[in-house]
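#structure-requests
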Amino acid sequence: MLTRQQKHILLKFFSMFSVVRGYNILVIVIAQYLASIFILAPKSSVKIVLLDAKLLMLVLASSTAIAAGYIINNFYDKEKDLINRPQKSMLDRLVNQNTKLSFYFVLNFLAIIMASYVSFKSVVFFSLYIFLIWFYSHKLKRLPFLGNLVASVLIVTPFFVIFIYFKNYQDVVFVHAIFLFLIVLIRELVKDLTTLKGDLTLGYKTLPILYSERFSKRIITILALIVLASAYCLVTRFNIGKMDYYFYVVSVIMVGFVLLLWFSKTKTHYVKLYSVLKLIILLGVFSIVLVDFKVFF
């Protein structure tokens, strides 16, 4: 049996894990390595990629910077989260703000230290990345559409770091990046529809608040059509192995997604659509192995 103090420590651990979105970071780490093995460095063996110390430092630097970003975002969004996600907010509040900020600075410092192992350019890159995350949380997040765009860029940036490291400038990499960026951007726009109450209460100027939910749905529909076009491009123009099945499935899901979007009216509906997009991203991460799953044999 755990003592009362041990239970308290365990709760604080889960609270901090919730704040830094540990599950999201784990998925990003897996995605970075899978993208490195199957897309960005396909001519290198799995062993070489996995034992690449500089790649490991870039992945760890990305993870710690992202974790710090979630902390500062949580700090600025504490009032909105209390309205939109009261249960999660109560768990997050088990760790006081001073402790969170201390972790924020420590994690950013660690990210810079790990980046310094790779190169001075990496230090500059991650310094700018950390600053942009803070600036987004502090200012840009409240701006309509620009906030969504910046948030999406920040989410795909860890993959951009790996892309630059391997210097793989093939067209297929860019189209993959566009596809991921668009899915993430759509997810961010749907997220605005799920947080209308908190955004309206605290004066956030999101698209559905400024221009209506219908306008947001039109933008999302246009982006979904571009997603379908990029999926079609990946399947027909590039050799992506069995991963083309993923894009066939996603294309069908996106058509259904758009249809359901126009019938959605409540927060519950939008949350379900948001979950669909998260599932698409998660499936995309693990379907990367379909590009050439023989690599493991």
